[in-house]
Amino acid sequence: MSYNRPFLSDCITFEATPEHVASAYQDLNRVMNPEFVHIFLDKIERYARKPDRALFLVQYQNSTIAFTTIIDKAPVPDELTVEQATPLMGYSCATGLMVLPEFRKKGVASLLVKQWEVWSREKGCQGIWVVTKKMGEWYRKHFNYLQVELIERQGVKKTILKKSFPVE
Ligand SMILES: CC(C)(COP(=O)(O)OP(=O)(O)OC[C@H]1O[C@@H](n2cnc3c(N)ncnc32)[C@H](O)[C@@H]1OP(=O)(O)O)[C@@H](O)C(=O)NCCC(=O)NCCS
């Protein structure tokens, strides 16, 4: 790993409050599908406001370059068996992760995925789960997530993965 350390050390990662939402939206919405930008705005507003969830932002030179959202408890997908679903009920769920294209492959997402763990442990969760269309292998290879199941919804294939925290 040869990340650009000077760049990363100039990045500021923090848990956002509602006051941060407008500028984050302004900086990030250009990469969202224009049809769904209102959903993105509504989502980051809720994650910044509600106590059971969090919006983390990364700023570089006073501009937002990445975000992630995570929730303490989320409904587990119906497609899972009881054996698969039950452990996830005590896990947090990461529900969004995006780095602006020009800042990718510099370690920014890795900062945020580590932040999921810190936040989830503080909340007393036993692990984290995530659903992804294309990045299942990435979560496995780089962050040691395990595949729980492959599902298909309205013709779209998705992978559910989890990472369990060791019992202390
Ligand atoms: C996926 C995404 C979040 C990665 O962000 P990033 O900041 O580039 O990730 P990092 O720099 O922390 O990369 C961590 C590792 O993954 C690798 N990597 C990054 N993007 C990758 C990709 N698309 N495919 C395969 N490997 C990738 C990096 O090279 C790095 O590997 P290394 O540790 O061996 O050097 C970013 O590409 C993105 O926002 N994509 C669009 C939205 C998305 O797919 N979100 C996640 C889906 S749930």
For the structure shown, list the relevant keywords.
168 residues; alpha+beta; Aminopeptidase; 7-stranded mixed beta sheet; 6 helices; globular; binds coenzyme A
What does this structure look like?
- This protein has helices spanning 5-9, 21-28, 37-49, 82-88, 108-122, 136-143; strands spanning 11-15, 53-60, 63-71, 92-99, 127-132, 146-153, 156-164.
- It has a single domain (5-164), classed as Gcn5-related N-acetyltransferase (GNAT) (Aminopeptidase), CATH 3.40.630.
- With 168 residues, it is α+β, with helices and mostly antiparallel strands.
- It has a seven-stranded mixed sheet, sandwiched between helices.
- 33% of the residues lie in helices and 32% in strands.
- The structure holds coenzyme A (COA).
- Residues 1, 97-99, 104-110, 132, 135, 138, 142 line the site of coenzyme A.
List the topology elements.
Elements: H1 5-9, E1 11-15, H2 21-28, H3 37-49, E2 53-60, E3 63-71, H4 82-88, E4 92-99, H5 108-122, E5 127-132, H6 136-143, E6 146-153, E7 156-164
Parallel strand pairs: 4-5
Antiparallel strand pairs: 1-2, 2-3, 3-4, 5-7, 6-7
The structure holds coenzyme A.
Residues 1, 97-99, 104-110, 132, 135, 138, 142 line the site of coenzyme A (COA).
